[in-house]
Amino acid sequence: MSNEAATAQAAQAAEAAPAPEPLPHGLGASLPPADARAKTEGTFPYAADLWAEGLLWAAVLRSPHPHARIVSIDTTHAREMPGVRAVVTHEDVPGSPLHGRGTADRPFFASEVVRHHGEPIAAVAADHPDTARMAAAAVIVEYEVLDPVTDPEQAFEAEPLHPDGNLIRHIPLRHGDPEAAGEIVVEGLYRIGRQDPAPIGAEAGLAVPRPDGGVELYLASTDPHADRDTAAAAFGLEPERVKVVVTGVPGATADREDQGFQLPLGLLALRTGCPVKLAATREESFLGHAHRHPTLLRYRHHADAEGRLVKVEAQILLDAGAYADTSADALAAAVAFACGPYVVPNAFIEGWAVRTNNPPSGHVRGEGAMQVCAAYEAQMDKIAKKLGIDPAEVRLRNAMATGDVLPTGQTVTCPAPVAELLQAVRDFPLPPLPKDTPEEEWLLPGGPEGAGEPSAVRRGVGYGVGMVHMLGAEGADEVSTATVKVHDGVATVLCAAVETGQGFTTLARQIVQETLGIDEVHVAPVDTDQPPAGAGCRGRHTWVSGGAVERAAKMVRTQLLQPLAHKFGMSTELLQITDGKITSYDGVLSTTVTEALDGKELWATAQCRPHPTEPLNEAGQGDAFVGMAFCAIRAVVDVDIELGSVRVVELAVAQDVGRVLNPTQLAARIEAGVTQGLGIALTENLRTPRGLIRHPDLTGYALPTALDAPDIRIVRLVEERDVVAPFGAKAVSAVPVVASPAAIASAVRAATGRPVNRLPIRPQAAVVTERS
């Protein structure tokens, strides 16, 4: 065959070949994460991978006691060890000695008293990590051991554990008629255990001193500007002399960094004049960062003969551990959502957060809302049982809708399709029953070789309906700033919103693609030289940071279209950008974005700030929340009533999402939240007898694995846009965490007839002594 003939044949084949599939583009498409390949290939730079010339290694000495008076600290032996470059204690903190996420009440290093197991006492920098650890162990601390206060109920009468006292916050919510009563009254006492965020990677970081006497901190921070300001205050420096550079965050379901971990790191770098690295062990990670609040809840529900709620009375006690952290915020959420997404005309809730000598509690996904959901859903099951009606039906009769009023007096103005969500999961077909055959024994509770007799297995179906608030609450100033630049046909987004796995960088790319019609969009690395964007929690970055990116992109769009509109004598509103092409409403104008740019560099900076909220008053009343999200889950479980083992067969999920911005990413976030809730329900319990963390590792702390994950069916996504939110979208990660533990507990109750009033569910709680 001649070259001409071969060329002609190849051209014909190319014309006959189907066109390649277009890449995902803009909002509503499943745009893959830009860092997905690096993470799967193991080349993504995490904090633990950092290195610098002349690097020193740090180690922290932590208290072995939950409560003790410090008599003396002797660092002589540690300082004299070969290779040790610095040892620091509370005496070496040049600035503010206290820090804290919500309340600055926590010392960087304990000075006179230790208040929890693992509290930092001293830190060491040495030329080898083993030397640093040995030197830390060589610091001699003489303690006078004190009796720890570990029962939060005893904290009210105990001697003050902190100069600020044992009571962090008390909220007495009063709503409606205190004399109201129902024909049906059910009561319950519930306990929620302590869960750890258990991030994929333990804390790590690098501190590098600067020539101006400042320091740069390379951290997996989720709120870099807050961390910078805290560090600067501790170091006695101006904020501009401390820079936080965000490195790869290996997953975050809470405030990712323990500030008591970061600050010794920077202090050692300033003291030695050398870069200092600290990579925490898993044990140190458990000892250092905040956990979910263990909670004690007492409830009394009043309902009429039809199962409609008349009054809810509750007492909620949060164990904050040794320091306040974000406990005041968690208590506000717990009290405000104590009745759940149900219409309750009369509510009287008492909420307290108290200090103890247990490990500190703080922000963990769904804080406050998760604990009360487990309790109020158990109460709804009791009402259904007492009246002999279907558990889903009693929930439907009380379901909240847009325009209803929370017990805080706030009107629900956002979409609240609670009844629609409930109906979707209730009507979804149930999974088939397991077969009693040897080859399918793995389907039984307990797994292979672990199940008892198939005849002892009972199936149960239960429901959980949860709600969370989005963004900060009670007057928090939620604001974010973003800059969008366009040059040579490439767009760059600068925003200090940290990518923690929630997908913000992907969303930012989609927003710019949608607004400007530019395919190649890069999101710049985050540091504190950029304007602040706030913490990465409660869906903040989808709302405020995504909103800031959208506003900046629209400003650039106007700059791009203005010359064309002026040339053709029309408004920019009459021009549209689609698939990289600019067209007018009448078809007169048609050009590409690249041609319109013509080598120009365009940029704009914008802010997004939601409408303000207000603190709850002395009666627990006020418009405290910007918006809310809802979720309904139906759980199907198999329980071996002789062994108490539980297998979650299926979780059917219906969720209020506002608008789907990235279908694949959204489904992954929901599935991850549901699976996290599975761990809360069945396995995750950080045990702290007498204030000591027992088994601070991933062997003793049982996380659910892929083998434990049930079938997760997303049966309905309600896309009713929230008009006050950018794009109309709602946060999706937290509310499945809130609802799934309650649904699983409800299903275990249905299977066993046992009350199941504690999470995680212990095997003895699912054992039925007399087989029916």
Automatic annotation (TrEMBL):
Give the signal peptide, or none. none
Family matches, as SMART domains? Ald_Xan_dh_C
Q: Which InterPro entries match?
A: Ald_Oxase/Xan_DH_a/b, Ald_Oxase/Xan_DH_a/b_sf, Ald_Oxase/xanthine_DH-like, AldOxase/xan_DH_MoCoBD1, AldOxase/xan_DH_MoCoBD2, AldOxase/xan_DH_Mopterin-bd_sf
Q: Region (Disordered) spans which residues?
A: 1-37
Q: Where are the transmembrane segments?
A: none
Compositional bias per record (Low complexity), positions renumbered to this chain = 1-18
Lineage: superkingdom: Bacteria
Which Pfam family, an example, fits this chain?
MoCoBD_1
Q: Indicate the segments forming the Aldehyde oxidase/xanthine dehydrogenase a/b hammerhead domain, all copies.
A: 41-147
Q: What is this protein called?
A: Molybdopterin-dependent oxidoreductase
* Naturally occurring in which organism (per UniProt): Streptomyces coeruleofuscus
Q: What is the lineage of its organism?
A: Bacteria, Bacillati, Actinomycetota, Actinomycetes, Kitasatosporales
